[in-house]
Write a structure and sequence with these properties.
The structure is a homohexamer. Chain A is of the alpha+beta class. Chain A is built from 3 helices and 5 strands. The first copy, chain A, has a single domain, classed as Tetrahydropterin Synthase, Chain A, CATH 3.30.479.10. In chain A, 48% of the residues are buried. β5 of chain B pairs antiparallel with β1 of chain D.
């Protein structure tokens, strides 16, 4: 079979962050970001679902070996940001507000190329901040 | 970044309903709707996922403030129908069979305009009736 | 092995109910029961966990055949109350307020004897009304 | 209303399988498939989500009666493969590697026609192998 | 009925913290606490289950009104620590290592008296740090 | 604080098995074990919750380092049986029916001593076979 399927791998990380605009006053930050602007940080158990797309390899029955996909996600993303502060500890988040929206986009950019080199196409990055809130990014503008 | 992302908010409500066609006999209702036609009602813990779509605001890192989205969903939908009877208590369900399909469509119509006014676009209403059954509506005919 | 173990079976049912004291005014009912007193009912997806206790049968490796336990729960409880109105349709709830507390106790009384006849001992009835609220009853006063 | 909606039904099955290429050595199988190549099998609690698409029937409020959809899925798929060995016991998996990818495609082919005859269109087969891994197939090449 | 039942309410909070012993070197902290000692914090979506125990009130069918229990938990615990830094922002955590174990004990001490005044008895504080780790405290030494 | 708390760690494994009594006919096995007696095996995603009990260490805030507990569970249990056949591949299950009840007891016996040597006390082994069925063992006869 050479049917096109979508394969998803879940990885998790726990991180601290705050939503804060450097050029705004504390009052303005509180007004816009609410309790997410707490100066001393808060944090989340993030759940990350990465979906790739591609044909099924006839010999293996795989679209992409999930051990490989897991290794890409861990080495490029979750091992780097797990138990870290997203605002302070992550060079590739410098200058970017650590909203779930921006995180999803940046995670896409971190893994897109390696997935392509593994012969597949990144389809979606889905990131849960809480059980009530999540963001999906499918690439592009 | 002005990337387009999809942002989802979950809200919940608990309601009574029955599936019942007024012009059918009790037997016909039972035949078509099975135990969902119990005259004295039954009920569910509904889980509602509302997904909006839009560019990321560079200043906030948000597509749409989830507090605003939550407020729209609550004021237009879940605060109105929570702990209610969908067939008897909700004027905007009058004359509409209270299937999960119809509920999803009506919920879309209730919130589409306010989300547009908040600068975003409603993308999907996903409604779980049980852990085994859910409906998605993406607008349009 | 004749070790004592605890075995749990989950069953589910969807029902309508309201919390209502017949001798109170509508205002008093609203004051005490809040939105749970809505005259036209509301409803839930209840999750029921029944735990039995007993030695492991050496021949089967079972404490109690879960098909038997499931059949007892269904025939005595969930098939009877699923898609029903707990206040109106269930003879053995007549005169009993349909709180999760009372439901758990009544369910215990409905299944205790049959489980004993099957050679085991009922240990706990755990009943979820929502993902945020549940009740456990271990028998006795 | 004749709006187009997507309706999903979840069914589950528990099965044994292994990933194994008959023409490869045990070493090669281990290298490619890792612990999934254990000669004596391993197994999973699979979760299957079948999504169909269609207009809402005005008389019933249904896109497709979920009892009918459930019956199709059970009779064609889950009753056949539940508590079975996917490599040994299922004629229609003969010669096909029992990856989640291939399973999703084969399940699609097993149910597409009956869903069409019921007046709806199969939209997606989503199959969870574990809480961390799942596959989606939307038909076509 | 005056049967004794156990009633549980779930509340949630998202907080930052680190595990850190002030009198140890950074190396010793890293050795003992691993990645939980990251100087710039990390965080979690905590899930808190509070279980109370008591007889069922015959008039209400309640052991304890869950709105009251929820209000106690929120006012004494979750509203105070949600979106905060457990090490820096919470006076009643000062000098106490912010392990899940200690948090569970401190939460017990924060709510025990008010639950007693509401006529019930606190039975268990169960606190999830992640989906894989949780702590239960039943009071006492 | 030297309060006694209960700490739980979840680990998972995927295994094949069948319920089969060697001295019974195939018919008798089918009669007693139903579809669980399928000769070619079936399998599950097992979820294992191990709960230990002990005082909180004042220096660390830990009852027992969860990395240590996780390592014990993995090395003695889940790494050994993950992606294996419980009837064929596991020496310490030889001659024992692979029911969830027996598995829970055997897992207890595999880890009790190492947990004691780590200074804590094993309190409960809880094993989910499916989302509907689980067993708890607290030690002893």
């Amino acid at each position: 079979m050479s049917k096109i399927v979508y394969v998803t791998r879940r990885e998790r990380f726990n991180a601290a962050h705050k939503l804060w605009h450097e050029e705004w006053s504390a009052e303005k930050n509180l007004e816009v970001f609410g309790k997410c602007s707490n100066p001393n940080w808060h944090g989340h158990n993030y759940e990350l679902f990465v979906t790739i797309k591609g044909p099924i390899n006839e010999e293996t029955g795989f679209c992409m070996d999930l051990k490989v996909l897991s290794t890409i996600i861990k080495s490029k993303v979750t091992d780097v940001i797990d138990h870290r502060n997203l605002n302070l500890d992550i060079p590739w988040m410098a200058g970017i507000k650590t909203s779930t929206e921006n995180l999803a986009v940046v995670i896409w950019e971190r893994i897109e190329q390696e997935i392509k080199e593994a012969g597949c196409q990144l389809h979606c990055v889905k990131l849960y901040e809480t059980e009530n809130n999540f963001v999906e990014y499918y690439g592009g503008e």
